[in-house]
Amino acid sequence: MATVLVHYTAAAVSDQGRKRSSNEDSYGFSVEHGVYVVCDGMGGAAAGEIASSLAVDEIMRLVAGSRAATPTRAEMESAIAAANYAIFSRAQRNHKLSGMGTTMVVLVAEERRVSVFNIGDSRCYRLRDRRLEQLTLDHSLVEEQVRLGRMTEAEALRSPLRNVITRALGTQKEVTPDVFELEAEPGDLFLLCSDGLTREISDSLIESLLALDLPLEELCERLVGAANKAGGHDNITTLLVRAEG
Q1: Which domain holds residue 34?
Q2: Which of 26, 216, 224, 244 has the smallest number of CB atoms closer than 10 Å to its CB?
Q3: Which residues neighbour 153 within 8 Å (Cβ) at sequence distance 6 or greater?
Q4: CATH code for position 87
Q5: Residue 76 to residue 55: CA distance in whole angstroms
Q6: What residues does 132 pair with on adjacent strands?
Q7: Using alpha carbons only, how large is the chain's radius of gyration in Å?
Q8: Nearest CA to 25 among 233, 195, 212, 220?
């Protein structure tokens, strides 16, 4: 039986939200190279915005220089390490940027092979057959407590510690991403997003919105609109990648 080849299309929308004075999220993608990335910066003043944009710029620069059409896992891990060091060293040189960092979620797709890399609490989901599955695990204090059985999901939602990130890009000299490898099928829809989306609306609402038969950019707009309608307390970034046969 012949293997079904897939190709990818993508769209993204990033929004300041209703409460923040600036947008510290950044994203970038190259369908040509099969790389898609979302970052959510953190730090005082403009430091979060600097950290997230540095990360995306460094990743996309290194991807463009890859010898392969799509970077290998080793090349992506090297690119993430380089992005981490770029942020860390910039903060070391400028005390006003001390402690800045960013979350990062990256999807790399080459035909049916998909790899997801994540650091922090920006997420990657997959919608398959109208069912949503979270592919990444948050590096946050409350989510780790939930996974250990020390806190319920309801307690996590109310916790004053829900903003505490346990792993971030750029805050330490070295960082290791989680890596998830899977196989795509035609019709799969991948969502990369910052927590400005997932803290405002439920997975069930995300699932129902992604199931709509609409262009990718309009789906991104619907997601952002729903998060803003629910409060829009943070910046919101959605990046959708569809596998097509």
Answers
A1: 7-136+170-244
A2: 244
A3: 146
A4: 3.60.40.10
A5: 12
A6: 127
A7: 17
A8: 195
